[in-house]
Amino acid sequence: MQHLDDATRTELEAAAFRRLLTHLDAHKEVQNIDLMILADFCRNCLSKWLVAAAEERGAELDYEAAREYVYGMPYAEWKQQHQQPATPEQQAAFEARQAEKRQAGETS
């Protein structure tokens, strides 16, 4: 992608991000905890990254507005309709993932 100009690269990145949001929206069965276990990010992380990007550019974007954009609806509504309680197996896998990150941080 280095051969692309900045504007084109930004447009492609934005299009890929929008496609990621569409993909996540089509797969509401994939819980945030599953994303955190497998990829170390979730929909909330995307929301926080949007807020951070806005702040870096001097734009105002609050976290709840960012979450509504990422989730496609108010977070409370999405949570009520689609979020399942984490299973003991998911919680254990998440804790194991966090322990691995802590250990990697200690040895790095």
From TrEMBL:
Biased composition (Low complexity): 81-96
Domain SMc04008-like: 30-95
Source organism, top-level taxon: Bacteria
Compositionally biased region (Basic and acidic residues): 97-108
InterPro entries found in the cross-reference section: SMc04008-like_domain, SMc04008-like_sf
Region described as Disordered: spans on this chain: 81-108
Database matches in Pfam families: DUF1244
Protein name: DUF1244 domain-containing protein
Lineage of the species this protein comes from: Bacteria, Pseudomonadati, Pseudomonadota, Gammaproteobacteria, Oceanospirillales
